[in-house]
Amino acid sequence: MGKQPPQEEDMPALAPVSPRALLTALALGAIPAFLAFALDEKALQPGDITLAALVFLVAVFFIWRIPTSKPRLLPWPFALVLAAVPTLWTMATLDGPITNDERSFQFQAELFASGEIAEPLPHAQTAASAEDDLLLLDVFRRRQVYEDPATDRRFSKYAPGTALALLPGVVLGQPLVATLLAALADLLLLRWIAHQLRLQQRHLVPLLFAASPFFLLMQTSTQSEVYTLPAVLLGYGVLLRLRQSQTGSAWALVVGASCGWVFCSRPLTGFVCALVFGLALLQQSRRWPFALFAILGGLPFLLLFLWWNQEFSGDPWTPVYSLYAQKYGPFFPGPERLPQDVYGNGDFWVGLLRQSGRWSVAFGGMLGAAALAFWGAWRLRLRDGGVAILLSLLLPAVYSLHWYAGHRAYLGPLYAAESLGLLCLGFLFLLEQAPPRWGDGLVAVMVLGGLAMFANRWSLIASESHARSGPQRLVQTQLPANQKAVVFLPVKNQGSKEKAFKYWTPSLPSELQQDAPLILRTTRRMTPQKIVALLGLGEYPLYGYVPQPGLAEGGILQPLNK
Prior knowledge:
mainly alpha
């Protein structure tokens, strides 16, 4: 019979945490935010530190001035509502995703829903040279989508996991359904994990997690981290179960499968998870069967990943991600190159500063609170073997070698998002050893502060969505849906330093055959006149999209063939 989970009285006693130690940790935890703000203009937005500092001051006032009393919260129902509201609000009010990554994931999911894994490249419908066919790719080009003239097809540059996660929502006509399901899985898993860890205020873990502005902002998206976070929590929870039991080796299959799923969505994150979870399995005496079962659990996902690479790159060890990086920007470009995308050559210390600076304001929306969470995860090693702290430290460290820390709209270090739930567990575990009024005060204020930080950042997400969807919204409102017309996107986004290529998304090549408006890119070589000639579109109404940042519609449609 398996060993029973340890009871609270069986857990090793930890030294109490004094108010002075808590304040010191908070002060130290605030330093990365100030350094990032001063040294890296891309790390934080104006007002982030101010608002996070205000939450800190309110928390301190609440702790010292308000009599000790248990906040009257309904943690579980409130957590469910909090987790659902951003996603439902996004469905109702926004016009599309705010990043090209999300558009690429959804593009691939739509291909899966149609029974395909790729789509044919566009070709001229009139006599044209091979060079013209290559130039025509620019007319339909989307960021993070790879065009392969050798096989005559287009596909997402990413591993297939995220698109598979989105597939049920895409089939239902709303990709964000997958985001809702991921949130529910997160909360259920956190309840289960908190019970296994025997946290004294385990009922508050889902609430603290759901009120995090980092989580709330991610819930407006279809970013890949949204769907890998539940897998990390599942693997962590099963590791705890195996740690407390002498039997049940087959449970290790789930640990391996969770790492495999993450690997099929975010390969580098999956590698880090496999390393940490694998070390945790091997750490236990006479548990080699656990490691073997874990390998078997992850094997199907590894085979899927290798098959995917073989199918598209011709080499199981060369991901499409690498092909895209080499085509549009090599890993280590020379001074003569100005690539559109560069990967893997970031400055480690700049990356680490950006990651830690974002954690400093993103965790609970309170300046420096992340330090308490990391401290708590360190103390939690007595119960989880160090998995939470190791994963929470390795993810931002590994991704600091990357050139990009994730979109600014999501506030936190997006590439370390999978550790958010583990840090919430560590935070509440630390507060068990703190004076009661600290635990009561910090959680209550951070719930409110997280909502305030989310509300402050929502306008950035809304404006990004508005800017990116301008052409589509104008087409929907001003052109008949069942008649062919052509709208040409300009080369430059007026009023912005960014190329139009970054913001606007053209139609798919398959839409050439449909009786519906088309949205096509223009370049200096592929002018509207040349596009019309190559695609035989001269008989249809032609318009140019002219961006007007001051207009609610985002721009105007200017007739080109009156």
